[in-house]
Design a protein that fits this description.
mainly beta, Lipocalin, 2 helices, 14 strands
Length: about 270
């Protein structure tokens, strides 16, 4: 095959091919692994009270294959620093698994890799969304590429306060040496007023430390962390969050869960 003479054209074609390959891998992998669900979610800072719009951790796109005790994920977060005139994408590939824990605790361990630089979606997807909503395009230089290992630990315990309400503590550790470290602790609740509706909340604190040079001015210290979400029919999610990434900013998340049919049975719910 002849290589295009324009390097930018070749880069665009290669990235498009990569995205198609990833989508096919997720779809085929989900069926091959007898997945329970495939989840798709996106995050944005639109309709928030952040001091600057579409800045710092501004949006993300993620895919998860859930096999019950094990989850495989591919997702990407976009970071833009308009004041410094730079940006980068964090592209994550990881697996998480539930492990045995004592005294009623739910423990989940995860690990994977993060690539920092020009990602799979990044600037092109961000500007495509801007064209739809009438926003200004974002044209910033990309930070140099780097790779980082990542480890994630979550621990939680639930106590029932009735047939529809559960509450309990939650602890989180998210460490990617050379990129950033996040530690959170707080209380969470899940209220199910009906079979179709679930209200989920978290309130606590998150300590952050930016280790990558562009993150150091924006991540650091201990701040309030919160999340309020609504799940409809166990498939649709809308959630508001504060300080999820350690940057003390608000975000909105929307998601959809695609159920897969098991062999000889109905789709998992």
């Amino acid at each position: 095959m002849r290589t295009p003479s324009n390097p930018q054209t070749w880069t665009r074609r290669r990235r498009a091919a990569t995205i198609v390959a990833v989508a096919l891998t997720l779809a085929l992998g989900a069926s091959a692994l007898v997945a329970q669900t495939l989840s798709v979610s996106t995050e944005n800072d639109i309709f928030t009270r952040n001091p600057t719009k579409d800045d710092l951790y501004s949006f993300s796109l993620g895919f998860e294959i859930d096999r019950g005790a094990t989850t495989f994920a591919l997702f990407e977060r976009a970071f833009t620093d308009r004041a410094a005139g730079l940006r980068f994408d964090e592209t994550y590939l990881e697996a998480r698994r539930d492990v045995a824990a004592p005294r009623g605790w739910n423990l989940r361990l995860g690990g994977g890799v993060v690539r920092v630089g020009n990602g799979l979606f990044g600037e092109r997807l961000q500007n495509a969304v801007h064209r739809v909503i009438g926003g200004d395009p974002v044209d910033l230089r990309y930070h140099r590429a780097s790779w980082h290992a990542r480890a994630v630990v979550t621990a939680e315990r639930w106590a029932s306060l009735g047939p529809r309400l559960e509450v309990g503590p939650r602890f989180e550790l998210d460490a990617a040496p050379g990129l950033r470290t996040l530690v959170a602790a707080g209380a969470q609740a899940s209220w199910r007023p009906s079979r179709r509706w679930t209200l989920e909340t978290f309130l606590g604190a998150r300590r952050s430390k930016g280790e990558l040079d562009p993150l150091e001015p924006h991540l650091g210290g201990l701040s309030l962390a919160a999340r309020l979400g609504v799940v409809v029919a166990e498939r649709y999610l809308v959630a508001w969050s504060l300080n999820t990434h350690g940057d003390r900013r608000e975000h909105w998340t929307v998601g959809y869960v695609v159920p897969f049919a098991r062999a000889g049975g109905p789709a998992a719910r």
